[in-house]
Amino acid sequence: MRKNLFGAILVAITLSFGWSGTTYAQGKGHGGGGGGGRGASPGGPPSGAGVDRGMGRSSDASMGRADEGRGNASARSNGRSDAALERARIASQNLHNADNDLRRHPHLANDLHTNANDLRAGYQAALASNPNLTFGHYVAATRLAKNLGGRFPGITRDAILAGLANGDSLGRTLQNLGLNSDQAKAAKKQADEQIKNSKRKS
C-alpha cells in the first residue's frame, strides 16, 4: 500500500515538473514575440513590406511602359545630340580650312573687294545653315554674284548659297536662277579663272 502511494506521488511530482517546464517555455516564447513586437511598430507591415517594396512593385508594374518611354526619349535625344555635334564638327573643320586658305592667299579677299575678316565672317555665318559648305564654294558664290548680279538681279550670293544648301550644284543653281546651260558653264569658267588668278598672286 505504501509502495503504491509512493509511486503515485512520484508520478504526480514528475508530471508537475513537466507541465511547469512546458509553461515556462511557452512563456519565454510569448515574451520573445512580445519583445519583437515592441521593437517594431505594433501592427506594422510584415518583413519586406513598406516603401521599398511598393517602389519595387510600382517599377515592375510600369517596366513595360515607363522604362521603354524613357529609353525611347533618351535614344531620340541622343540622336539629335549626335547629329548636332557632327554638324558642329564639320563646320569647325571647314572654317579651319578657310583660315588656312586666307593665310596662304591674301589676295583672294582683295580681289573680291573685301577683306579677309569680312570674308571669313560671312563664310562662318553661312556655315550655320549649311555646315557642309566648303570655303571654295562660298568664294565662288561671292565671285559669281559680283560677276552676274548687274545683269541678273536675282543672282545674289545668298540665292546661290541657298541652292547649294538644297543639294544643287553651282551650275544647276545658276540655271534655276535664270541662266541657260551655256551661260551657266561660261559663268562658272570665268569665276574659276578669276579665283585661280587671285591665288597665283600669293
Briefly characterize the structure.
The chain is mainly alpha-helical. The protein is built from 8 helices and no strands.
Features:
0% strand, disordered N terminus, 202 residues, mainly alpha, globular
What does this structure look like?
With 202 residues, the protein is mainly alpha-helical. The chain has eight helices and no strands. Helix 2 runs antiparallel to helix 4 (116-129) and helix 6 (157-165) crosses helix 7 (170-176). The protein starts with a helix and ends with a helix. Mean pLDDT is 76; it is low at 1-59.
Q: What's the rounded overall pLDDT mean?
A: 76
Percent helix, as a range, is over 70%
Q: Report how far apart the termini are.
A: 143 Å
Oligomer: single chain
Biggest sheet details: none
What is the alpha-carbon Rg in Å?
Answer: 45 Å
Q: Which stretches are low in confidence, meaning pLDDT under 50 for 5 or more residues running? A: 1-59
Question: How does the helix and strand content classify structurally?
Answer: mainly alpha
What's the number of helices? 8
> Could you state the order of secondary-structure elements as H and E?
HHHHHHHH
Principal-axis shape equals: globular
Got a strand count?
A: 0
Please state roughly what percent of the residues sit in beta strands, choosing from under 5%, 5-15%, 15-25%, 25-35%, 35-45% or over 45%.
Answer: under 5%
